[in-house]
Amino acid sequence: MRGELTGRHDGEMLRPDSFGVNSNLKASNQSSAARGGWEDLRMRKWFALVLAAAVLAAFVVAFGALRGRNRREPDAEKNRGAASAVAPVSSNDRRAPVVVELFTSEGCSSCPPADALLSRLDETQPVAGAEVIALAQHVDYWNYLGWSDPFSAHEFSERQDEYAAAFGNSGVYTPQMVVDGRAEFPGGNDGKAFETIAQAAREPKAEVSLTRAPEQNQAGDGLRLDVRVGRLPKLADGDTADVLLAVTEDRLSSEVERGENAGRRLSHVGVVRRLTKIGDVSATGPAFAGEPVVALDKGWRRENLRAVVFLQEHTSKRVVGAASLKLFG
After folding, report:
1. pLDDT (tens digit per residue) in 242-285
2. Residue 61 forms part of a structural domain
3. Amino acid 45: pLDDT
4. CA-to-CA distance for 282 and 232, rounded, in angstroms?
5. Does residue 276 sit within a domain?
6. Which of 85, 228, 237, 258 has the smallest C-beta neighbourhood within 10 Å, fewest atoms?
7. Which residues span the domain enclosing 146?
8. Residue 185 forms beta bridges with which residues?
């Protein structure tokens, strides 16, 4: 009977008294129900185990995915850094010297942003692979506007005229930035500055050594340097390279009282105090070696002075090598 009932109602949970059967059948059905209860309990336990296993598996998958994402994050950060205009610079990077000249004036209202850019290039050295050597040359042709720039000199105006001829420009302007004598552009253009400096750093460079000479002038009114030029890159056909020595001073400032920048405090780095030619070299001539003496003006703060030696093709004005030395401290 049970077999018939269970066979007829296979898979259903039947109440034992639903068919009006006798007590013996009821007792038998009660025994069967007890066994069904144990089976139901086993099913519940099995379901609980399956559920626990599923939860554990989901946790393992999620944890693995999280670990995988964490492993990929450094690569993503690296790729984002590579896409930026200026790559991060390590202190261990080998840098090629790049001479960055800025023709500027305290009498020019457009010049302070360019002065600030030159300061940033000099102080932070943000271009990977390049050692920026700042040369701020204050021209004198804006002095008539009401403020005479205390750092200006006519020789810097003349040097800018030479660049105008070399670049084929019809005139001069401020602020003008010149990178390694190879490119010129408005001095406040930081994007152009970074790009051009990076390109210049990849050009072949001469080997230039600049140190303090072992024997100094006993009079104490000058500083003797040791300058040596080794291997030269290929020069323009028929051209020679001038060996130029500049003395620069950092941390200079002015309280401008008149003119276009009246009422402003202007700060400067790399201000050229003196620029002289100490020799020349050619592709076929001997290497250069010399011990020039730098005369020091009493008004210059010695802790802020730097010497810069650079090689510049006489006609094309390309700079093919440079070195910089802090003179004191």
Report:
1. 999 999 999 999 999 999 999 999 999 999 999 999 999 998 88
2. no
3. 53
4. 8
5. yes
6. 237
7. 96-326
8. 177
